C-alpha cells in the first residue's frame, strides 16, 4: 500500500515551516507524538508526576509491546533508555573480555561505539579488528566468515552508518554470528523507522536504536533489545534498585527482563512520545515507508549528480535515505547555514563521526541530506535547485 503523503503532511506541523531534510539528525514529530507528550506533561502539572504516571500506567506499559512488535521481539527483551548510546553502552560494557579476545567491527562504525571499543581494549587486552569491505564498500560477509575463530568474542557493527546511505548486510552478518555462536551487537539507529528491522531476520543478540531519527519520536529516547537467553548472562555494568531490587542487607536480585538495564526515574512524557511514534510507523507499515524513502533518496541523488561541484559519496548498490555530498571548495558549514536561511534543513557529517571510513576514503566534512516519507518530490527538486543556485552564487 502506498502512503497518503498529503494526509501525513497535514499530521506534521513542521512541514509548514521548513523543508526538513535532516531526518538522520532528528525526524519531524507527527502531531500524535506531540499530543501524547503535551497531554501527559499537562497532566503532570495538573495532578502531579506520580499521579499522572499512575493514570497513564497502561499506556506507558504498552510502549514495550509497541517496540517488541516493531522489532519482532518479546516485550521482556526490551529496555527503554534516554538515548541509543546509553542502550548500546549498557549492553557492551556488560560483556566480559579477556586478553586476545577479538572484537570485529565495520569500517563505518560510529565514533561513540569505536571509542568504547578502544577503552575496553585498553582495559582488557581485547583487540579490535575491522571486517573488510567488498568492492562496493559494503561489509563483506565472506571476509567476515573467514575471520571467525574461537577468539572472536563479539561482532559489533552499525547497520546504516551516520555518514552516508551505506546499508551493511546486517542479516548476513547475523547468519554468520549464529552459525558460530558469536555474540552480535547491532547499532540500528539510522535503520529503525526507515525500513523493517526484525531481530528474527537480523539474527542479532543485541540491538540499540534511537527514537529521534527516522522513527520521528522525541529527542532523548532510545531502546535496547537483548535476546532472552543472552539476557540471563548479562549483568549491567551499573545497577540501581529498579534494575536489581535490594532483597536482603547483603543481597540484590537482578530483574529477569531487559529492564535490568533501566533505572528508576524516567521521562514518561518522552516515553509516551516514543511509543506513539512506534505505533505511527507500524500503522503506516515499514515496507511502505522504506519504498518511499528509497524513491525520494534516489531522486535526490540523481538530482545532486547534475549539480556542478557536487559529488555524491554514498556507498553500496542499494543506499538508504541518507545522502552525503561534498561541495567542492565550499565550506559545508557555510552552505548549510545558507540553506537554513532559505528554509532547508540539512546537516554536516564530520570525519570524526566515522573516522576509519573518512580516512580510508579521504572524506572531508560532508553535507548530509536525509529525506523521509513525508517529504515531497517537489521539495527534493526545489532543494536541488536551491543548492545549485547557491553554489554557483558562491563561486
Ligand atoms: C545517532 C546515532 C547514534 C546515537 O543515537 P543517540 O540516541 O543520539 O544516542 C548511534 N549510532 C548511530 C549510527 C547513529 O547514527
Automatic annotation (TrEMBL):
The keyword Transferase applies. Residues 20-383 form the Aminotransferase class V domain. Pfam families: Aminotran_5. GO terms for molecular function: transaminase activity. PANTHER family: BLR4730 PROTEIN (PTHR43586:SF24), CYSTEINE DESULFURASE (PTHR43586). It comes from Methylobacterium currus. This is Aminotransferase class V-fold PLP-dependent enzyme. Gene3D superfamilies: Aspartate Aminotransferase, domain 1, Type I PLP-dependent aspartate aminotransferase-like (Major domain). Belongs to the class-V pyridoxal-phosphate-dependent aminotransferase family. Keywords: Aminotransferase, Pyridoxal phosphate, Transferase. Its cofactor is pyridoxal 5'-phosphate. PROSITE patterns: AA_TRANSFER_CLASS_5 (PS00595).
Amino acid at each position: 500500500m502506498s502512503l497518503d503523503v498529503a494526509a501525513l503532511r497535514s499530521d506534521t506541523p513542521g512541514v509548514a515551516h521548513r523543508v526538513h531534510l535532516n531526518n538522520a539528525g532528528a525526524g519531524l514529530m507527527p502531531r500524535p507524538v506531540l499530543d501524547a507528550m503535551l497531554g501527559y506533561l499537562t497532566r503532570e502539572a495538573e495532578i502531579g508526576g506520580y499521579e499522572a504516571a499512575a493514570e497513564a500506567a497502561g499506556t506507558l506499559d504498552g510502549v514495550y509491546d509497541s517496540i517488541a512488535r516493531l522489532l519482532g521481539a518479546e516485550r521482556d527483551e526490551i529496555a527503554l533508555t534516554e538515548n541509543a548510546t546509553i542502550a548500546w553502552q549498557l549492553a557492551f560494557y556488560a560483556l566480559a573480555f579477556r586478553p586476545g579476545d577479538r572484537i570485529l567491527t565495520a569500517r563505518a562504525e560510529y565514533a561513540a561505539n569505536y571509542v568504547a571499543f578502544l577503552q575496553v581494549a585498553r582495559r582488557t587486552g581485547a583487540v579490535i579488528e575491522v571486517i573488510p569491505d567488498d568492492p562496493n564498500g559494503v561489509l563483506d560477509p565472506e571476509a567476515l566468515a573467514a575471520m571467525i575463530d574461537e577468539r572472536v568474542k563479539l561482532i559489533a557493527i552499525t547497520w546504516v552508518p551516520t555518514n552516508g546511505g551505506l546499508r551493511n548486510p546486517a542479516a548476513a552478518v547475523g547468519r554468520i554470528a549464529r552459525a558460530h555462536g558469536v555474540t552480535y551487537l547491532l547499532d540500528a539507529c539510522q535503520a529503525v523507522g526507515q525500513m523493517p528491522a526484525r531481530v528474527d531476520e537480523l539474527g542479532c543478540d543485541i540491538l540499540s536504536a534511537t527514537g529521534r531519527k527516522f522513527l520521528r519520536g522525541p529527542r532523548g529516547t532510545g531502546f535496547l533489545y537483548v535476546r532472552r537467553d543472552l539476557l540471563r548472562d548479562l549483568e549491567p555494568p551499573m545497577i540501581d534498585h529498579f534494575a536489581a531490587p535490594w532483597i536482603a542487607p547483603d543481597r540484590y536480585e537482578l530483574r529477569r527482563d531487559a529492564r535490568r538495564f533501566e533505572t528508576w526515574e524516567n521521562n514518561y512524557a518522552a516515553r509516551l512520545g516514543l511509543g506513539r511514534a512506534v505505533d505511527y510507523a507500524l500503522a503506516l507499515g515499514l515496507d511502505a515507508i522504506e519504498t518511499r524513502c528509497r524513491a525520494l533518496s534516489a531522486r535526490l541523488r540523481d538530482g545532486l549528480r547534475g549539480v556542478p561541484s557536487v559529488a555524491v559519496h554514498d556507498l553500496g548498490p542499494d543506499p538508504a535515505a541518507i545522502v552525503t555530498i561534498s561541495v567542492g571548495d565550499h565550506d559545508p558549514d557555510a552552505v548549510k547555514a545558507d540553506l537554513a536561511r532559505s528554509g532547508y534543513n540539512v546537516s554536516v557529517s564530520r570525519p570524526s563521526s566515522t573516522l576509519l571510513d573518512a580516512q580510508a576514503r579521504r572524506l572531508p566534512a560532508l553535507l548530509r541530506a536525509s529525506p523521509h516519507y513525508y517529504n515531497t518530490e517537489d521539495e527534493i527538486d526545489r532543494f536541488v535547485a536551491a543548492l545549485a543556485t547557491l553554489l554557483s552564487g558562491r563561486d
